[in-house]
Amino acid sequence: MTKAMPTIAMISSERYPHHDTNTQQVIKNLNGLYNIGMDVELIIPAQPNNFFNSKYDIHAEIAKYYNVSNKLKIKVLKTIPTSKLRLEKFFHSLVATIYAVIKKRYDIVYTRNKFSALIAFFLGKKLIFETYRRLGDESPIAMKWLGKSAKSNKFVGMVLHSNVAAASMLRAGFPKEKLLVLHNGVDNSDMLPILSKTQAREKLNLDSSSKYVVYTGNMQRNKCIESLVDIAAYLPDIKFLLVGGKPEDIARLTAYCEAKHVRNVLLVERQPINVVSQYLYAADALIIPPVSAPMEKFGRTVLPFKLFPYLAAGRPIVAPDQADMRELIRHQENGLLVTPDDAKQNAEDIRALFSDEKMQERLATNAAETSRSLTWEARAEKFKKWLLGVGD
């Protein structure tokens, strides 16, 4: 007998569309689930521009911004408009969860919001919680208590973005069968058109003869982008192209470069998704800051979202040799894992990479091959099998 597919209320208190990476993860996840036929509705707070304006088409805006289908099920609740005060984090989480509980058509609440998760659980609604964080290590007492409660049938399970995060929940006492590791994915349509290095540089007006190490993504302090400037200081003949900063981040890093007398770092503000791919294709190598603090100190970066388009771009990747990276990057096969927190050694590793064309070719080819199984649809299929109880 075929098990019925549950209807899912996905609750998010974030602003949409918005440049924060977690909003992109939510929408790409929703799009993947939609593409394989799952019945999921995203419940989000209203933004100021659609709180009073009935003509504002949130579906069209989200589809355009994130490059996804405009047929995604999205419910906007007008509780309190989103703002920099982030009051909606509380009010929307509360109202949206109660709404999902009252509406009998939803079988499961699925959320990344801890407050929504707690409300749903205490109201007796079936719950799936998703996180990239190592909550078992960050909040061990609370997680040990929740680990005991997780044996309830109302707690369907937890989706985690890495084995590192799952291991922390196991240590907190969560049942192994209720932990599902799903690495994030890549939307191959974001990588179109596929460009050669030369074509990408022509589009971006970049020097065709220079060597470029490229970083794309957020540049706030907890990402430790200054480490890339430190590495660049040892490689004056290589250009470091850093893309994705807010104006205040660009100003901070510009000042840091000036203080260090580093002149081979190029800073570019945030770009649309389809332009980011051009920068990836223009690179000789792509880099994730080889430092330990983003994961070990701040806990905000575990298998960063940028890794997936990096792989799909088919360029050599330089990344810190840490447990999360080792889940997808195999040293000198599909990437180069380097010692964290050692700028001089990291620079030597990059110079060695650029002097070895065979290694560059091998890493690039294998990175692209790795990405083939890391689509959002493949992720959604794994989620579906697990949810229906027919997974491995």
List the helices and strands and how they pair.
Layout: E1 8-11, H1 21-35, E2 40-45, H2 48-51, H3 58-66, E3 73-77, H4 88-102, E4 108-111, H5 114-122, E5 126-131, H6 135-138, H7 140-149, E6 155-160, H8 163-171, E7 179-181, H9 197-204, E8 212-216, H10 226-232, E9 239-245, H11 247-260, E10 265-269, H12 273-281, E11 285-287, H13 293-296, H14 307-313, E12 317-320, E13 336-338, H15 343-354, H16 357-371, H17 376-387
Parallel strand pairs: 1-2, 1-4, 2-3, 4-5, 5-6, 6-7, 8-9, 8-11, 9-10, 11-12, 12-13
Helix pairs in contact: 1-17, 4-5, 9-12, 10-15, 14-16
Description:
The protein has helices at residues 21-35, 48-51, 58-66, 88-102, 114-122, 135-138, 140-149, 163-171, 197-204, 226-232, 247-260, 273-281, 293-296, 307-313, 343-354, 357-371, 376-387, and strands at residues 8-11, 40-45, 73-77, 108-111, 126-131, 155-160, 179-181, 212-216, 239-245, 265-269, 285-287, 317-320, 336-338. The protein has 392 residues and is an alpha/beta fold. The chain folds into two domains: 8-185 and 375-387, Rossmann fold; 188-371, Rossmann fold (3-Layer(aba) Sandwich). The strands form two sheets. The protein has a seven-stranded parallel beta sheet with strand order 3-2-1-4-5-6-7, with helices on both faces. Helix 10 links the parallel strand 8 and strand 9 (239-245). The radius of gyration is 22 Å and the shape is globular. The two termini are 19 Å apart.
